[in-house]
Amino acid sequence: MGRIGIFGGTFNPVHKGHVRLCRQCMQQLSLDSMLIVPAKIPPHKDAPMLAPSRERIEMLKLAFSGMPVEVSDIECRLPGKSYTVRTLRLLKEQYPDDTFYLLIGSDMLYTFEQWREYEEILKLACVVVGARQEEEYRALCQKRLSFGALSDRILILRIEVTEVSSTEIRAQIAAGYSPDEDWIPKEVLSYIMEKGLYQPFSEAALCSYEQSARRALRDKRFYHTQCVAKLAGELAVCYGADERKARAAGFLHDITKEMPVPDQLKMMQESAIITDKSVFANANVYHSVTAAITARNRFGIEDTEVLHAIRYHTTGRAGMCLLEKIIYTADAVSYDRTYKGVQLLREEAFQDLDRVMFEVVQFTLKKLVKDSVPIAVDTVSCYNEFCLQKEK
Ligand code: ATP
Fold first, then answer.
1. Omega before 68 cis (within 30°)?
2. Gap between the Cα atoms of 331 and 325, Å rounded
3. Atom of ligand 1 nearest to the CA of 16
4. Among 16, 130, 187, 251, which is least packed by CB within 10 angstroms?
5. Atom 14 of ligand 1 has which residue's CA nearest to it?
Protein backbone atom coordinates (compact mmCIF):
# COMPACT_ATOMS: atom_id res chain seq x y z
CA MET A 1 0.00 0.00 0.00
CA GLY A 2 1.55 3.29 -1.11
CA ARG A 3 1.05 6.88 -0.07
CA ILE A 4 0.31 8.99 -3.12
CA GLY A 5 0.03 12.77 -3.19
CA ILE A 6 -2.34 14.37 -5.71
CA PHE A 7 -1.77 18.00 -6.56
CA GLY A 8 -4.39 19.59 -8.79
CA GLY A 9 -4.55 23.12 -10.12
CA THR A 10 -4.58 25.29 -13.18
CA PHE A 11 -0.80 25.77 -13.21
CA ASN A 12 -1.12 28.67 -15.60
CA PRO A 13 1.87 28.77 -15.32
CA VAL A 14 3.44 26.54 -12.67
CA HIS A 15 5.61 28.59 -10.26
CA LYS A 16 8.01 28.07 -7.37
CA GLY A 17 5.17 28.26 -4.83
CA HIS A 18 3.76 25.06 -6.36
CA VAL A 19 7.15 23.32 -6.49
CA ARG A 20 8.08 24.18 -2.90
CA LEU A 21 4.67 23.24 -1.55
CA CYS A 22 4.91 19.89 -3.31
CA ARG A 23 8.45 19.20 -2.08
CA GLN A 24 7.63 20.07 1.53
CA CYS A 25 4.47 17.99 1.48
CA MET A 26 6.30 14.95 0.12
CA GLN A 27 8.99 15.25 2.78
CA GLN A 28 6.72 15.87 5.76
CA LEU A 29 4.24 13.12 4.91
CA SER A 30 6.87 10.70 3.54
CA LEU A 31 4.91 10.25 0.34
CA ASP A 32 6.04 7.65 -2.17
CA SER A 33 5.07 9.74 -5.17
CA MET A 34 3.07 12.75 -6.27
CA LEU A 35 0.67 13.03 -9.21
CA ILE A 36 0.40 16.54 -10.60
CA VAL A 37 -2.98 16.97 -12.27
CA PRO A 38 -3.49 20.13 -14.33
CA ALA A 39 -7.15 21.00 -14.87
CA LYS A 40 -8.45 21.42 -18.39
CA ILE A 41 -11.11 23.88 -17.26
CA PRO A 42 -10.83 24.83 -13.57
CA PRO A 43 -14.25 24.55 -11.91
CA HIS A 44 -13.56 26.81 -8.94
CA LYS A 45 -12.31 30.01 -10.55
CA ASP A 46 -12.03 31.98 -13.78
CA ALA A 47 -9.06 31.19 -15.94
CA PRO A 48 -8.02 34.26 -17.90
CA MET A 49 -5.22 33.84 -20.45
CA LEU A 50 -5.43 30.08 -20.05
CA ALA A 51 -2.51 28.50 -21.92
CA PRO A 52 -3.36 25.31 -23.82
CA SER A 53 -3.25 22.14 -21.68
CA ARG A 54 -0.28 20.73 -23.58
CA GLU A 55 1.79 23.86 -22.86
CA ARG A 56 0.89 23.76 -19.15
CA ILE A 57 1.83 20.07 -19.04
CA GLU A 58 5.21 20.78 -20.68
CA MET A 59 5.92 23.55 -18.16
CA LEU A 60 5.01 21.22 -15.28
CA LYS A 61 7.43 18.58 -16.58
CA LEU A 62 10.20 21.19 -16.69
CA ALA A 63 9.41 22.52 -13.21
CA PHE A 64 9.28 19.11 -11.53
CA SER A 65 12.09 17.36 -13.43
CA GLY A 66 14.34 15.42 -11.05
CA MET A 67 11.57 14.90 -8.48
CA PRO A 68 9.60 11.65 -7.95
CA VAL A 69 6.60 13.27 -9.53
CA GLU A 70 4.37 12.30 -12.44
CA VAL A 71 2.42 14.83 -14.48
CA SER A 72 -0.97 13.33 -15.32
CA ASP A 73 -3.10 14.42 -18.27
CA ILE A 74 -6.19 12.68 -16.89
CA GLU A 75 -8.25 15.90 -16.52
CA CYS A 76 -7.05 17.34 -19.82
CA ARG A 77 -8.30 14.28 -21.66
CA LEU A 78 -11.79 14.34 -20.12
CA PRO A 79 -14.55 16.60 -21.47
CA GLY A 80 -16.09 19.39 -19.40
CA LYS A 81 -15.03 21.00 -16.16
CA SER A 82 -12.35 19.26 -14.12
CA TYR A 83 -14.17 18.34 -10.92
CA THR A 84 -11.80 16.92 -8.31
CA VAL A 85 -14.30 14.32 -7.11
CA ARG A 86 -14.51 12.84 -10.60
CA THR A 87 -10.72 12.72 -10.90
CA LEU A 88 -10.30 11.07 -7.51
CA ARG A 89 -12.87 8.39 -8.35
CA LEU A 90 -11.06 7.59 -11.58
CA LEU A 91 -7.68 7.50 -9.87
CA LYS A 92 -9.08 5.21 -7.16
CA GLU A 93 -9.90 2.69 -9.88
CA GLN A 94 -6.27 2.83 -11.02
CA TYR A 95 -4.76 2.75 -7.53
CA PRO A 96 -7.30 0.85 -5.38
CA ASP A 97 -4.85 -0.09 -2.60
CA ASP A 98 -3.10 3.25 -2.14
CA THR A 99 -3.86 6.09 0.25
CA PHE A 100 -4.46 9.48 -1.35
CA TYR A 101 -3.33 12.87 -0.03
CA LEU A 102 -4.90 15.75 -1.91
CA LEU A 103 -2.62 18.77 -1.72
CA ILE A 104 -4.15 22.28 -1.83
CA GLY A 105 -3.09 25.82 -1.03
CA SER A 106 -4.82 27.76 1.75
CA ASP A 107 -7.09 29.79 -0.59
CA MET A 108 -8.68 26.53 -1.67
CA LEU A 109 -9.49 25.47 1.91
CA TYR A 110 -11.52 28.64 2.46
CA THR A 111 -13.80 27.75 -0.46
CA PHE A 112 -13.61 23.98 -0.08
CA GLU A 113 -17.22 23.57 1.08
CA GLN A 114 -18.32 24.94 -2.30
CA TRP A 115 -16.49 22.20 -4.20
CA ARG A 116 -18.70 19.57 -5.80
CA GLU A 117 -19.26 16.68 -3.31
CA TYR A 118 -16.57 17.93 -0.96
CA GLU A 119 -17.57 15.40 1.71
CA GLU A 120 -17.01 12.61 -0.79
CA ILE A 121 -13.61 14.11 -1.62
CA LEU A 122 -12.70 13.89 2.06
CA LYS A 123 -13.64 10.19 2.04
CA LEU A 124 -11.51 9.51 -1.02
CA ALA A 125 -8.45 11.47 0.15
CA CYS A 126 -6.94 13.23 3.10
CA VAL A 127 -6.76 16.93 2.27
CA VAL A 128 -3.37 18.47 2.98
CA VAL A 129 -3.19 22.26 3.16
CA GLY A 130 -0.19 24.56 2.77
CA ALA A 131 -0.27 28.25 3.75
CA ARG A 132 0.19 30.86 1.02
CA GLN A 133 0.85 33.74 3.36
CA GLU A 134 3.12 34.19 6.36
CA GLU A 135 1.46 33.66 9.73
CA GLU A 136 -1.55 31.92 8.21
CA TYR A 137 -1.03 28.64 10.05
CA ARG A 138 -3.26 29.42 13.04
CA ALA A 139 -6.11 30.73 10.90
CA LEU A 140 -5.95 27.52 8.86
CA CYS A 141 -6.11 25.34 11.98
CA GLN A 142 -9.16 27.34 13.01
CA LYS A 143 -10.79 26.87 9.63
CA ARG A 144 -10.06 23.14 9.78
CA LEU A 145 -12.12 22.86 12.99
CA SER A 146 -15.18 24.25 11.18
CA PHE A 147 -15.38 20.91 9.31
CA GLY A 148 -16.46 19.17 12.56
CA ALA A 149 -16.13 15.39 12.39
CA LEU A 150 -14.53 15.66 8.95
CA SER A 151 -11.65 17.77 10.26
CA ASP A 152 -9.75 14.53 10.97
CA ARG A 153 -9.40 14.19 7.22
CA ILE A 154 -7.69 17.57 6.90
CA LEU A 155 -4.01 18.15 7.66
CA ILE A 156 -2.42 21.57 7.90
CA LEU A 157 1.26 21.60 6.98
CA ARG A 158 3.81 23.79 8.69
CA ILE A 159 5.66 25.05 5.64
CA GLU A 160 8.00 27.71 4.48
CA VAL A 161 5.64 30.03 2.60
CA THR A 162 6.25 31.30 -0.95
CA GLU A 163 4.07 34.32 -1.61
CA VAL A 164 3.56 34.15 -5.35
CA SER A 165 0.66 33.45 -7.70
CA SER A 166 0.29 32.59 -11.36
CA THR A 167 -1.82 35.74 -11.74
CA GLU A 168 1.10 37.97 -10.73
CA ILE A 169 3.44 36.16 -13.10
CA ARG A 170 1.04 36.45 -16.05
CA ALA A 171 0.51 40.14 -15.33
CA GLN A 172 4.24 40.80 -15.27
CA ILE A 173 4.88 38.95 -18.51
CA ALA A 174 1.92 40.63 -20.24
CA ALA A 175 3.30 44.02 -19.18
CA GLY A 176 6.69 43.16 -20.68
CA TYR A 177 8.60 42.53 -17.43
CA SER A 178 10.60 39.47 -16.55
CA PRO A 179 9.19 37.90 -13.35
CA ASP A 180 11.43 37.60 -10.28
CA GLU A 181 13.61 34.47 -10.54
CA ASP A 182 12.49 33.57 -7.03
CA TRP A 183 9.00 33.11 -8.41
CA ILE A 184 9.37 30.89 -11.43
CA PRO A 185 11.82 28.14 -12.47
CA LYS A 186 14.10 29.56 -15.18
CA GLU A 187 13.40 26.65 -17.56
CA VAL A 188 9.69 27.46 -17.32
CA LEU A 189 10.30 31.14 -17.99
CA SER A 190 12.43 30.32 -21.04
CA TYR A 191 9.65 28.07 -22.32
CA ILE A 192 7.08 30.85 -21.85
CA MET A 193 9.24 33.32 -23.75
CA GLU A 194 9.99 30.88 -26.55
CA LYS A 195 6.31 30.07 -27.06
CA GLY A 196 5.10 33.64 -26.53
CA LEU A 197 2.69 32.57 -23.78
CA TYR A 198 0.83 35.24 -21.75
CA GLN A 199 1.95 37.92 -24.22
CA PRO A 200 -1.29 38.83 -26.00
CA PHE A 201 0.48 40.42 -28.97
CA SER A 202 3.40 38.04 -29.51
CA GLU A 203 3.68 36.32 -32.91
CA ALA A 204 2.71 33.05 -31.16
CA ALA A 205 -0.44 34.67 -29.75
CA LEU A 206 -1.35 36.11 -33.16
CA CYS A 207 -0.95 32.66 -34.64
CA SER A 208 -3.31 31.23 -32.03
CA TYR A 209 -5.94 33.95 -32.77
CA GLU A 210 -5.69 33.09 -36.45
CA GLN A 211 -6.14 29.39 -35.67
CA SER A 212 -9.11 30.13 -33.42
CA ALA A 213 -10.69 32.16 -36.22
CA ARG A 214 -10.01 29.25 -38.56
CA ARG A 215 -11.95 26.93 -36.23
CA ALA A 216 -14.80 29.39 -35.59
CA LEU A 217 -15.51 30.56 -39.15
CA ARG A 218 -16.40 29.18 -42.55
CA ASP A 219 -13.81 29.45 -45.36
CA LYS A 220 -15.06 32.69 -46.88
CA ARG A 221 -15.29 34.58 -43.60
CA PHE A 222 -11.98 33.22 -42.40
CA TYR A 223 -10.36 34.51 -45.58
CA HIS A 224 -11.99 37.89 -44.93
CA THR A 225 -10.56 37.84 -41.40
CA GLN A 226 -7.07 37.16 -42.74
CA CYS A 227 -7.47 40.00 -45.27
CA VAL A 228 -8.60 42.44 -42.58
CA ALA A 229 -5.66 41.47 -40.33
CA LYS A 230 -3.23 41.97 -43.23
CA LEU A 231 -4.57 45.35 -44.27
CA ALA A 232 -4.92 46.51 -40.65
CA GLY A 233 -1.27 45.61 -40.05
CA GLU A 234 -0.20 47.56 -43.14
CA LEU A 235 -2.29 50.59 -42.19
CA ALA A 236 -0.85 50.46 -38.67
CA VAL A 237 2.69 50.59 -40.06
CA CYS A 238 1.69 53.47 -42.35
CA TYR A 239 0.16 55.56 -39.53
CA GLY A 240 2.55 54.59 -36.72
CA ALA A 241 0.08 52.46 -34.75
CA ASP A 242 1.01 49.12 -33.15
CA GLU A 243 1.11 46.61 -35.99
CA ARG A 244 0.64 43.52 -33.83
CA LYS A 245 -2.32 44.98 -31.97
CA ALA A 246 -3.88 45.83 -35.32
CA ARG A 247 -3.40 42.28 -36.58
CA ALA A 248 -4.73 40.83 -33.32
CA ALA A 249 -7.89 42.95 -33.58
CA GLY A 250 -8.17 41.98 -37.26
CA PHE A 251 -8.03 38.25 -36.51
CA LEU A 252 -10.55 38.52 -33.68
CA HIS A 253 -13.02 41.12 -35.00
CA ASP A 254 -15.46 38.54 -36.43
CA ILE A 255 -14.60 35.61 -34.16
CA THR A 256 -18.21 35.20 -32.92
CA LYS A 257 -19.99 36.06 -36.15
CA GLU A 258 -21.12 32.49 -36.75
CA MET A 259 -22.20 31.88 -33.17
CA PRO A 260 -26.00 31.35 -32.94
CA VAL A 261 -27.80 34.68 -32.41
CA PRO A 262 -29.58 33.58 -29.16
CA ASP A 263 -26.19 32.62 -27.66
CA GLN A 264 -24.75 36.00 -28.64
CA LEU A 265 -27.72 37.80 -27.14
CA LYS A 266 -27.28 35.87 -23.89
CA MET A 267 -23.58 36.71 -23.80
CA MET A 268 -24.35 40.40 -24.35
CA GLN A 269 -26.97 40.44 -21.62
CA GLU A 270 -24.62 38.74 -19.16
CA SER A 271 -21.36 40.52 -19.90
CA ALA A 272 -21.86 43.91 -21.50
CA ILE A 273 -23.37 47.19 -20.39
CA ILE A 274 -25.38 48.43 -23.33
CA THR A 275 -27.61 51.45 -22.88
CA ASP A 276 -28.50 51.92 -26.54
CA LYS A 277 -31.54 49.73 -27.28
CA SER A 278 -30.96 49.94 -31.02
CA VAL A 279 -27.89 47.70 -30.59
CA PHE A 280 -30.20 44.90 -29.40
CA ALA A 281 -32.56 45.62 -32.29
CA ASN A 282 -30.01 44.80 -34.97
CA ALA A 283 -28.54 41.29 -34.86
CA ASN A 284 -25.84 42.31 -37.37
CA VAL A 285 -24.19 44.34 -34.61
CA TYR A 286 -24.14 41.62 -31.94
CA HIS A 287 -20.94 39.98 -33.10
CA SER A 288 -18.88 43.13 -32.55
CA VAL A 289 -19.98 43.20 -28.90
CA THR A 290 -19.57 39.45 -28.37
CA ALA A 291 -16.21 39.33 -30.18
CA ALA A 292 -14.87 42.00 -27.79
CA ILE A 293 -16.20 40.03 -24.79
CA THR A 294 -14.55 36.89 -26.19
CA ALA A 295 -11.25 38.70 -26.79
CA ARG A 296 -11.21 39.72 -23.14
CA ASN A 297 -12.61 36.62 -21.45
CA ARG A 298 -11.21 33.86 -23.61
CA PHE A 299 -8.00 35.35 -24.92
CA GLY A 300 -7.20 37.50 -21.88
CA ILE A 301 -6.81 40.72 -23.88
CA GLU A 302 -7.04 43.72 -21.55
CA ASP A 303 -5.78 46.37 -23.96
CA THR A 304 -8.59 48.94 -24.22
CA GLU A 305 -7.66 50.11 -27.73
CA VAL A 306 -7.80 46.57 -29.10
CA LEU A 307 -11.05 45.78 -27.28
CA HIS A 308 -12.63 49.01 -28.56
CA ALA A 309 -11.37 48.38 -32.09
CA ILE A 310 -13.23 45.05 -32.04
CA ARG A 311 -16.27 46.40 -30.20
CA TYR A 312 -16.87 49.33 -32.57
CA HIS A 313 -15.79 47.84 -35.89
CA THR A 314 -19.42 47.62 -37.05
CA THR A 315 -21.03 50.74 -35.62
CA GLY A 316 -18.10 53.14 -35.25
CA ARG A 317 -18.53 55.79 -32.56
CA ALA A 318 -17.49 59.34 -31.72
CA GLY A 319 -13.96 59.72 -30.38
CA MET A 320 -12.44 56.67 -32.01
CA CYS A 321 -8.71 56.14 -31.50
CA LEU A 322 -6.38 55.44 -34.44
CA LEU A 323 -6.54 51.66 -33.99
CA GLU A 324 -10.36 51.70 -33.98
CA LYS A 325 -10.39 53.68 -37.23
CA ILE A 326 -7.88 51.29 -38.78
CA ILE A 327 -9.99 48.21 -38.00
CA TYR A 328 -13.24 49.89 -39.04
CA THR A 329 -11.74 50.95 -42.37
CA ALA A 330 -9.76 47.73 -42.98
CA ASP A 331 -12.98 45.76 -42.51
CA ALA A 332 -14.79 47.87 -45.09
CA VAL A 333 -12.09 47.94 -47.78
CA SER A 334 -10.24 44.66 -47.10
CA TYR A 335 -8.51 42.76 -49.90
CA ASP A 336 -11.39 40.29 -50.31
CA ARG A 337 -13.96 43.07 -50.99
CA THR A 338 -14.90 43.40 -54.63
CA TYR A 339 -17.54 46.16 -54.80
CA LYS A 340 -17.13 48.96 -57.34
CA GLY A 341 -14.52 51.54 -56.33
CA VAL A 342 -13.10 49.50 -53.43
CA GLN A 343 -9.58 49.35 -54.83
CA LEU A 344 -9.37 53.12 -55.00
CA LEU A 345 -10.72 53.45 -51.46
CA ARG A 346 -8.14 50.92 -50.28
CA GLU A 347 -5.33 52.93 -51.85
CA GLU A 348 -6.70 56.19 -50.44
CA ALA A 349 -6.88 54.66 -46.96
CA PHE A 350 -3.07 54.87 -46.91
CA GLN A 351 -3.21 58.61 -47.69
CA ASP A 352 -6.20 59.85 -45.69
CA LEU A 353 -7.71 57.33 -43.29
CA ASP A 354 -10.34 59.75 -41.93
CA ARG A 355 -11.66 60.61 -45.37
CA VAL A 356 -12.10 56.97 -46.38
CA MET A 357 -13.66 56.12 -43.06
CA PHE A 358 -16.14 58.99 -43.37
CA GLU A 359 -17.09 57.75 -46.81
CA VAL A 360 -17.72 54.27 -45.41
CA VAL A 361 -19.83 55.71 -42.56
CA GLN A 362 -21.93 57.72 -45.03
CA PHE A 363 -22.39 54.70 -47.27
CA THR A 364 -23.41 52.53 -44.29
CA LEU A 365 -25.92 55.10 -43.03
CA LYS A 366 -27.54 55.42 -46.45
CA LYS A 367 -27.87 51.65 -46.70
CA LEU A 368 -29.36 51.33 -43.20
CA VAL A 369 -31.93 54.03 -43.96
CA LYS A 370 -32.77 52.41 -47.29
CA ASP A 371 -33.28 49.03 -45.60
CA SER A 372 -35.25 50.63 -42.71
CA VAL A 373 -32.89 49.09 -40.16
CA PRO A 374 -32.48 50.69 -36.69
CA ILE A 375 -29.30 52.74 -36.55
CA ALA A 376 -27.02 52.50 -33.51
CA VAL A 377 -26.65 55.84 -31.73
CA ASP A 378 -22.85 55.38 -31.93
CA THR A 379 -22.99 55.38 -35.74
CA VAL A 380 -24.92 58.65 -35.76
CA SER A 381 -22.45 60.20 -33.28
CA CYS A 382 -19.58 59.00 -35.43
CA TYR A 383 -21.13 60.61 -38.52
CA ASN A 384 -21.82 63.87 -36.66
CA GLU A 385 -18.26 64.05 -35.43
CA PHE A 386 -16.88 63.70 -38.94
CA CYS A 387 -19.30 66.41 -40.21
CA LEU A 388 -18.28 68.83 -37.48
CA GLN A 389 -14.59 68.18 -38.12
CA LYS A 390 -15.13 68.85 -41.80
CA GLU A 391 -16.83 72.17 -41.06
CA LYS A 392 -13.85 73.25 -38.96
P1 ATP B 1 -3.93 31.99 -10.15
O2 ATP B 1 -3.12 33.13 -9.66
O3 ATP B 1 -4.05 31.90 -11.66
O4 ATP B 1 -5.28 31.89 -9.46
P5 ATP B 1 -2.42 30.13 -8.47
O6 ATP B 1 -1.09 30.78 -8.30
O7 ATP B 1 -3.36 30.18 -7.30
O8 ATP B 1 -3.13 30.64 -9.79
P9 ATP B 1 -3.16 27.40 -9.15
O10 ATP B 1 -2.67 26.64 -10.31
O11 ATP B 1 -4.55 27.83 -9.18
O12 ATP B 1 -2.14 28.63 -8.89
O13 ATP B 1 -2.89 26.57 -7.82
C14 ATP B 1 -2.87 25.17 -7.73
C15 ATP B 1 -2.83 24.82 -6.27
O16 ATP B 1 -1.62 25.34 -5.69
C17 ATP B 1 -3.96 25.43 -5.45
O18 ATP B 1 -4.36 24.50 -4.47
C19 ATP B 1 -3.33 26.65 -4.83
O20 ATP B 1 -3.95 27.02 -3.61
C21 ATP B 1 -1.90 26.17 -4.59
N22 ATP B 1 -0.95 27.27 -4.61
C23 ATP B 1 -0.78 28.17 -5.60
N24 ATP B 1 0.21 29.04 -5.30
C25 ATP B 1 0.69 28.67 -4.10
C26 ATP B 1 1.71 29.18 -3.25
N27 ATP B 1 2.40 30.26 -3.58
N28 ATP B 1 1.92 28.55 -2.07
C29 ATP B 1 1.17 27.49 -1.73
N30 ATP B 1 0.21 26.96 -2.49
C31 ATP B 1 -0.05 27.52 -3.65
1. no
2. 10
3. 27
4. 187
5. 9
